[in-house]
Task: inverse folding
């Protein structure tokens, strides 16, 4: 059990170091922007998974309880992220066109 | 039937044991206190998600002129140069390490080892205090700003800042960056344009010199960046601070021997859940605020 905790600590630290190193090397490289963005998000979810499942012992709870805690996330926050980011891109990119259309 | 909750519940309604949802038992096989802590964390996580999504909205809206966190957070204690995000990475490590010491305290509690619980809890409290201190240090540098500052133009919103070399982080004294409005819009921007020489001198003469960031202005660029920084890291820092306080109270209860008398260390487990949650939130703040 204790060995597992130290293993997770090492794993999360290594992932953090990799993230910072990736940022230092590629953050100003336009061609890497998209790849960097999605790999950061995937690595973050990976870290979050280890924290909730091992440290918070959610992995040891009953399956039905895991669903109760996690389902609101994947449904509501997934929707919130989708709607906010797509709206933000809309106001960012097409606002002038809309303003012209309505004669604002 | 396992766990003390379901046993006590089952003893009063012994005929319901066959159906977990028939009442009288805990269908999730989890104690009341722990389940309520989980529900609190779920709601708290929604608050943080709301803040981070709002940040994402503004960031996508002002994508072209949003400051790079790597340019802003370059300080490291007792080091004069600039290293991108090294200190934030250190803070992340401290918080993850304190999460591990917390989980070890919980594990020692399961074995009813009082000395061990005390030891790991002290380390957790120290880790949390280092993190809060580091955040205060970072706020100090952000509020204080750079040596040269920036210029707030006549409109009171647009910031003309010094150009920073992306590789050496050295600031160019005579070259400035000014956001460019998107055609036909006053609130949208398409990027920066470099200003130098006479034009810069004229603009500077009409502008106000600002240093650092507050809720109203931000020398690193758009004020929203500072607003979200103060709100999100402040809200998280307050969680860490309360976590340290609660941990300290529980630690005193451990020392005093309360949980030896009750016969279980579930209280340590509950505060542990909260502490891991604070760590979990930081993982997201670190990615979305600093890395991306």
Result:
């Amino acid at each position: 059990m204790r060995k597992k905790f130290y293993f997770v600590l090492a794993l999360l630290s290594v992932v953090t170091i990799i993230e910072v190193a990736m940022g230092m090397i590629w953050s100003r490289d336009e061609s890497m922007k998209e790849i960097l963005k999605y790999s950061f998000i995937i690595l973050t979810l990976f870290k979050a998974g280890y924290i909730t499942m091992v440290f918070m012992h959610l992995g040891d709870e009953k399956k039905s309880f895991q669903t109760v805690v996690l389902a609101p996330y994947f449904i509501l926050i997934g929707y919130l992220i989708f709607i906010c980011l797509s709206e933000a891109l809309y106001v960012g990119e097409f606002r002038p066109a809309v303003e012209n259309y309505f004669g604002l | 039937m396992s766990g003390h909750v379901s046993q006590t519940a089952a003893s009063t309604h012994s005929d319901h044991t066959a159906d977990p949802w028939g009442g009288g038992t805990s269908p999730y096989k989890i104690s009341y206190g722990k389940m309520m802590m989980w529900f609190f964390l779920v709601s708290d996580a929604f608050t943080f998600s709301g803040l981070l999504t709002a940040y994402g909205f503004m960031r996508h809206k002002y994508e072209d002129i949003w400051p790079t966190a790597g340019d802003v957070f370059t300080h490291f204690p007792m080091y004069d140069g600039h290293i991108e995000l090294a200190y934030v990475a250190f803070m992340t490590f401290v918080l993850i390490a304190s999460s591990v010491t917390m989980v070890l305290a919980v594990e020692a509690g399961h074995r009813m080892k009082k000395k061990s619980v005390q030891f790991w809890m002290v380390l957790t409290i120290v880790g949390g205090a280092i993190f809060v201190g580091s955040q205060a240090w970072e706020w100090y540098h952000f509020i204080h700003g750079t040596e040269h500052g920036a210029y707030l133009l006549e409109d009171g919103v647009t910031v003309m800042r010094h150009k920073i070399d992306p590789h050496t982080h050295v600031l160019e004294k005579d070259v400035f960056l000014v956001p460019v409005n998107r055609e036909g819009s006053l609130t949208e921007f398409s990027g920066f344009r470099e200003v130098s020489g006479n034009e810069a001198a004229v603009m500077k003469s009409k502008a106000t010199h600002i240093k650092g960031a507050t809720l109203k202005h931000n020398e690193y660029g758009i004020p929203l960046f500072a607003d979200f920084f103060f709100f999100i890291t402040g809200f998280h820092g307050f969680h860490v601070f309360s976590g340290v306080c609660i941990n300290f109270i529980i630690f005193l209860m451990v020392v005093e021997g309360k949980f030896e008398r009750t016969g279980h260390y579930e209280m340590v487990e509950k505060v542990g859940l909260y502490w891991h949650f604070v760590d979990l939130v930081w993982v997201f703040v670190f990615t979305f605020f600093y890395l991306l």
